[in-house]
Amino acid sequence: MNDTPSLAERQAAFMAQVLFDEAPLPQGWNDRHAAGIEVYRGNYRSSLIEALKSTYEKTERWVGEDAFRRAAAHHVITNPPTSWTLDDAGAGFDATCAELFRNDPEVAELAWLEWAMFQAFTSADVASLDADGFTWQTSGFGEEEWTNLRLEFLPGAASRQVSHNMRAIWNALGEDELVHVATALDTPQSVLVWREGERATFMMGSVEEARAFAALQGGMPYGEMCMMLAGEEATADEAQQAAMRAGALLGRWLNEGLIAALRT
Amino acid sequence: MDMNQIEPFGGFGLGLRRTHYADFLDSDVAVDFVEVISENYMLDGGRPLRILEQVREKHPVIIHGVSMSIGSASGLDRQYLDKLKRLERRINPLWVSDHLCWTRTSAHNSHDLLPLPLTEEALGVVCANIQRAQDHLGRAMLFENPSSYLTFPEDEFTEWEFINEMARRTGCYLLLDVNNIYVSARNHGFSAGDYIAGLPMERVRQIHLAGHTPGQIIIDTHDREVCDEVWALYAHAVAKIEQPVATMIERDDKIPPLGELLDELDQARKLAASARPGVAA
Prior knowledge:
The complex is a heterodimer of chains A (264) and B (281). Chain A is built from twelve helices and five strands. With 264 residues, chain A is an alpha+beta fold. In chain A, strand 3 and strand 4 (199-205) form a beta hairpin. The longest helix of chain A is centred in the N-terminal third of the chain and has 25 residues, at 31-55. Chain B has a single domain (11-275), classed as TIM Barrel (Alpha-Beta Barrel). In chain B, helix 8 (228-239) crosses helix 9. The longest helix of chain B has 18 residues, at 120-137. Chain B starts with 10 loop residues before the first strand and ends in a 6-residue tail after the last helix.
């Protein structure tokens, strides 16, 4: 039996050396190899931490350089990269922040926001549907068409519920001198991210807006979304009010240029 | 045009880095080409791609990758190849290059250029992966000699023997990184002159010049100017290349104002002109 390791086995052992401090040195390696591996391990960690610093500039400023570096190092160790692009190194960092900054829950929300904006920044170039186009396409709609209408949002658009005022945090981070303003909201809201021209942007809204957006983005027809907002046991009056609120959301997304296309 | 041939292109260029976007967009920068890191533009859309297209209107572009991982025993990533091809079709570069190294296993990606054991098995893997990449792109590629911080007990070739055989078997071309030769020669105790003498210089289409960090192990950091020893090695190497060749300064960290890099590039121009008088670039 040939017990010489294959190239695949050698590379798996080498990768373990790079990723994990405690991995044992392969057979036949000496101090010179250990010193070389130290260089590769240092390059690996520093390039990933630099990638996280670049993606999460605002989160770093909010928590401070030292705390960020510790969080980034933890993220790199617990989430070794699998993707060919370094841009993906920041995936899931909001979850790492939720775990490490339990007493400051706004940090995870801010990290999510920066990640969503980072993703939107290089999303596919798709033109927004404007008000004239929307009017033209829906001019002949009857009840059935409205019920079955599906919306396509711009690629990269994303939403989530938040319990802190992301706008206030974002504005504070734009100042030369950072002041950690109180940002906890009395009631949860939502944040909606998309790309406007070449710039990623966001707006705050209601939790209902995030629910409606997520449902439509997931392929739910417009009529079903209206019923979802009204609730299962809604009266006719409540259903009508929900339809009006849905219409207002649709108008807001249209005005902001978030809608790419209509599908019936 | 023969898709397996890469015509020589003589000139002096720089890497396009975000810090210098405005310089390249707003003025006429005195370079013959720019090189970009492929992965920074293998995107679905947005501003970086738009900037690259604007720069492409002014200068020939080379796309230079760091993540193909031609040394991976687990093979190439199909999604990566598809995205690279899409960028290649969009930009129509002078050529596409990557490194003689591996960056990933089937489980993880190091995002660093890791060294290969120089064995017959590794050579077979590298050549099969290069063939697949070239077939996928429909054009020959350039591969860059790496800098490294360790060698393997199981090595069966010198690095230059390995590269020679790689080029012979695949028809690929070479991107000669003179700083990498210097770094590896110092780290492993071989002669940089022997390395250059052993390479098929007719396959070289491009040269990289960069700075490194001295120490017990010299590290290829691209964060400072080219040192005197690397300039001397450049003059030695370029004198042995008979065809036109593209020369580029690489800077990836502590990036200075563009003017400083253009001054360094002028130094390369002068050295090349005196090392091989009468040869265009």
